[in-house]
Every structure is written in structure tokens, then in C-alpha cells.
Amino acid sequence: MAPEPGTYVYDPERGEVGEYVAREVDRAGPCARIRPVGGGQEWVADLAGLRPATACERLRAVLGAANAGRRWGR
């Protein structure tokens, strides 16, 4: 079952937290489009490998994106 759009998920293949955008189906089967926290290039992840991000992972991702924005003047 796919998460709700906007849910923060952890992708173990990338070792990153992102925002779930949508479910897709390609030749390999069901996959998910994930948007980086704070914006950037979306990536495609294995839907079966995703899990909800923990509170600590969500906080780390949000703070990391905010700090990156300050460094680059966003």
C-alpha cells in the first residue's frame, strides 16, 4: 500500500528522507516518486522498500534543508 502524498518516507537505497509524491508503475513494477525535503530533483524509489520516516529522521531532514538554504542564501 502506498503512503499518502506529502508523507515523509525513508528510502534505504539512498539513505535519505523525502516527501512521497506519487505511485508509478514501470517495467520493473510499482515504484514511487520522491521529492527531497527542501526541494530539488525528484527521484524514483522502490515502493516496497520505503518506510515511514521516524520523527528523528524527519527533524534531521527538515533542519538540514533549512541550514542548506541559509548557506546558499535561500
Element layout with pairings:
Blueprint: E1 8-11, E2 16-26, E3 29-36, E4 43-46, E5 51-52, H1 55-71
Antiparallel strand pairs: 1-2, 1-5, 2-3, 3-4
Task: List the main descriptive attributes of the protein structure presented here.
single chain, 74 residues, alpha+beta, five-stranded antiparallel β-sheet, 1 helix, globular
Descriptive report:
There is one protein chain. With 74 residues, the protein is of the alpha+beta class. The protein has one domain (8-69). The chain contains one helix and five strands; from the N terminus they run E-E-E-E-E-H. It has one helix at 55-71; strands spanning 8-11, 16-26, 29-36, 43-46, 51-52. The protein has a five-stranded antiparallel sheet. Strand 3 (29-36) and strand 4 form a beta hairpin. It is globular, with a radius of gyration of 13 Å.
Overall domain count: 1
The oligomeric state of the chains shown is single chain
The portion of residues forming beta strands comes to: 35-45%
Q: Kindly report the spatial arrangement of strands forming the biggest sheet.
A: 4-3-2-1-5
Condensed summary:
The chain is built from 1 helix and 5 strands. The protein is α+β, with helices and mostly antiparallel strands. The termini are far apart.
